[in-house]
Amino acid sequence: MIANYGYKDGSGEYYISIDTDKCIGCTADRACLTACPKLMFEIITDDYDDEVAWVKKPNCRTLAYDCADCKPSAGYTSLPCMTACTPGAIKHSW
Amino acid sequence: MNAEVKADTLPEKKEFWRWQENVWVDESKDWKSAKIITCGIDVGSVSSQAVLVVDGELYGYNSMRTGNNSPDSAKNALAGVMDKCGMKLEDIHFVVGTGYGRVNVPFAHKAITEIACHARGANYMGGNGVRTILDMGGQDCKAIHCDDKGKVTNFLMNDKCAAGTGRGMEVISDLMQIPIAELGPRSFDIDSDVEAVSSVCVVFAKSEALGLLKAGYTKNKVIAAYCQAMAERVVSLLERIGVEEGFFITGGIAKNPGVVKRIEKLLGIKAMDTKIDSQIAGALGAALFGYTLQSKKAAA
Ligand code: SF4
Ligand code: SF4
After folding, report:
1. C-beta of residue A12 within 8 angstroms of C-beta of residue A91
2. Cα of A85 to ligand 1 centre, how many Å?
């Protein structure tokens, strides 16, 4: 399942997508949990009883601000969450 | 001079936003001979529904306005439909809670998100050809893809503000002093097409709507501009995950042709029809999940 967390507002579209099929039997040892400096990811049991990552609720409404420090404008060339998630489950829309 | 105003001389405050609450049971079925009875309760921010499923088939429901708290709303919604058919809580084998108040449904055996429940409910209502679901709820909006079993494959939810939601439509209904059920038809009763209001944010839309009225727009034109804005907003949400044929709309706004027809025009596809009340999709899906879980339990 592709789960999209985030929002669209007047300034743009801010979504983090997680391909939760890749989280089932994660081969990166749940690296997303510790890689994110804002600790935005969490492992939950979803509606189909699979243990997958999601973005914590409060962060879903403030992604543009929360992620600003990791983005190229802050000097990063790759995002810590995407680098750590070697199965390639995480994508950003901006 | 006596400035006292007697209560019976006060003007009646009309609630234009008030939508039709509904209780229904399928009189052709006898729940007493059923093997498995399950219930889904969807406590949303604006409305609450309780749906009874008997041996995997829709049997009855109650759809009403959400009260002051989730547990009471859940109890009242369920009591309404149980009273109608003489059922008691002990007769129900499995209860699933969903919606924003799902964890506060007092008698629920399990809580399941509204995303999974809407997909399951839409699959029942529209058949296994349903692939894209738009749920326009009271205070949020969801775009969902599902497979032929109603299992979610992709979803996106916007709950950041009430724009493009049922609550937004209620506000416009009150502002225009036009019953909510009339908004859709009236939005087509205009002499020329109108531009969408620039914002569907409830606060800005209110002042923009008032500005348009002052500028000489008829009420119908203002409603049309608001319906167009809502349609454009949800379409941009849908486009993010893509729209596949087998398009189904759930939630209260599915009953507003002013929004639905404009969405269909923007997408270039028609939404699937159903005879079942679009507002019960979440609770129906929850009850169907309950049926699967109870069946597994019984078979173990
Ligand atoms: S997001 Fe990536 S690292 Fe985190 S659990 Fe899923 S697959 Fe593993
Ligand atoms: S970009 Fe940075 S803050 Fe945002 S989710 Fe990734 S690691 Fe966390």
Report:
1. no
2. 5
